[in-house]
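Tip: read the tokens left to right.
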């Protein structure tokens, strides 16, 4: 990322809106802060190699391994359409195949996928695809529930609206496994 160019672009953006950072002390450091926030936090997921994350240090799975569920994973992402934030939670379920993944690894995967310019639906698909392709999972499921600033702060201004997406891959996308997945998730999938 070219931080200097990003800072200049933010300063130009503010001036185009009639707010000159050179004349307003509250905005003087805004271009630098915004560039740093996007580079170091909001879009840091691009710096994570998803394959390496899921293959690094994972022990082999026992053949009898059932479904593993990790709930309440914090999600912070930026909408690619408006560059506004969306915040919420994810639940990830997976059936180990080649190896068992650490619970923190699953949380880091969700974070790496969400800290990119991606639609909510794409984040869930990226999570389940990565678990199956790179993590060796026999099946994976991801539910993401977010509050979108682009829905609450602009447009229809629906402050309490949430968006829920579901993604599945491998044997957890097979209707024959639906009952087992429902049991593993409890009431969450149907809620």
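Filled-in amino acids:
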């Amino acid at each position: 990322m070219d931080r200097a160019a990003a800072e200049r672009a933010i300063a130009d953006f503010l001036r185009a809106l009639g707010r000159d950072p050179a004349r307003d002390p509250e905005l003087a450091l805004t271009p630098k802060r915004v560039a740093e926030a996007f580079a170091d936090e909001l879009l840091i997921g691009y710096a994570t190699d998803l394959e390496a994350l899921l293959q690094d240090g994972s022990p082999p799975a026992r053949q009898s391994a059932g479904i593993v569920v990790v709930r309440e994973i914090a999600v912070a992402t930026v909408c690619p359409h408006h560059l506004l934030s969306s915040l919420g939670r994810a639940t990830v379920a997976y059936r180990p195949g080649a190896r068992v993944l650490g619970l923190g690894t699953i949380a880091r995967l969700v974070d790496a996928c969400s800290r990119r310019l991606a639609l909510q639906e794409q984040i869930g698909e990226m999570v389940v695809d990565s678990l199956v392709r790179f993590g060796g999972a026999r099946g994976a499921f991801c539910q993401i529930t977010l509050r979108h600033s682009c829905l609450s702060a602009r447009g229809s201004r629906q402050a309490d609206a949430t968006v829920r997406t579901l993604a599945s891959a491998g044997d957890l996308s097979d209707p024959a496994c639906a009952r087992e997945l429902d049991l593993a998730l409890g009431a969450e999938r149907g809620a």
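The radius of gyration is 19 Å. The beta strands are 68-78, 85-95, 139-148, 163-170.
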